[in-house]
Amino acid sequence: MQHVIHGIPAICAMIATVYPALQSTIHFNTPDHLSRVFPYRLHVAGQRSCDRSHAPIGARFNHHTLVYTYSGAGMVRMGRVSAAAHAGSIAWVDTSQSYQHACHPEAESWSYLWMGLEGHGLDMVFARLRVASNPVFTSQETVAAEAHFHRVVELIRGKSPAIGSACNAIAAQLIAIIAGACADTMAGRNLPSRLAAVMQAVRTDPARRWSVDDLADIAQVSASQLFRQFRRHVGMTPLDWVRHERIDLAKQLLSGTDMPVAAVALYCGYPDPFHFSREFRRLTSIAPSGFRMEKM
Question: How far apart are the first and last CA of the chain?
Fold first, then answer.
């Protein structure tokens, strides 16, 4: 007896009968002319539940995929980097690169909502936030993002006439939430306690001539381990982070006090004001005195 199956929903239903633990819905969208004027465009979205018996997904496409975990746990790999995706987290995968995601080997199942996007600037944001080295983001805001994903699935499923503008706005909010989670990490929140201790020590004594060995001693790890952990969690080397912290502090002092520039330099760990000026200009594209005049 031959079975005839029509359409994606029927195919998904057939798969679910063969693999009862797998539940998957996929909805496609072809952006119209109006959608193409927006920075972000939605091509596909859906919902999926799987377990450890299901093979990883790693098909190559030319869009960025955002994945929201609402139940269970998954494992996301970008290149050689792997990260666990727990409930309330958002994973960002560039499907043009080598990647895989699947149910976490220690979890019974993984359920998630997802969307595939393209748009101007996504490649640059992906690179600037160093997502490839840390593809999963978690914060209080990411937990609240579930409604955004449900809304996207609802819009694309219903073929709403407003799908272009609405999904663009939602995508922008999700990118902002991910950037905010990165900022939390840069500020020392959601960090391993050892890195947080290093950051606190530098902020307490910014004038000290910090070396990588000094910072590694505080973290109680080797210098090479500290370097790797900063790269993974902060996106820069330990001493690069120290430089940015010092320049941020200098900005506050230049804009909020009358301290002479040389005194600001010394307080921020630059005994040589000329070195401070060069470093400040390199990171901000303006001299310390010029920055102060702009903020007056």
Answer: 83
Type of residue at 271: P
Q: Provide the residue range defining the domain that includes 115.
A: 7-186
Alpha carbons 58 and 279: distance in angstroms, whole number: 43
Find out whether 156 and 35 touch, Cβ atoms under 8 Å.
Answer: no
10 Å CB burial of residue 250 (0-12, 13-18, 19+) is: buried
- pLDDT-based confidence at residue 1 (cuts at 50, 70, 90): very low
Question: Could you tell me if 160 and 148 are in contact, meaning their C-beta atoms sit under 8 angstroms apart?
Answer: no
Note if the pTM is more than 0.85. no
**Chain segment 213-253, per-residue pLDDT in tens:** 999 999 999 999 999 888 877 778 999 999 999 999 999 99
d(CA 82, CA 275): 40
The token pair at 95 is: 């499907």
What are the backbone dihedrals phi and psi of residue 226, each rounded to the nearest 5 degrees, phi first?
Answer: -60, -45
Distance of alpha carbon 186 from alpha carbon 278, whole angstroms: 24
Amino acid symbol at 168: N
Instruction: Assess whether 14 and 41 both reside in one domain.
Output: yes
Spatial CA neighbour of 258 closest among 287, 295, 286, 285: 295
The CATH number given to whatever domain includes residue 47 is 2.60.120.280
Residue 291, Cβ neighbours under 10 Å: how many? 19
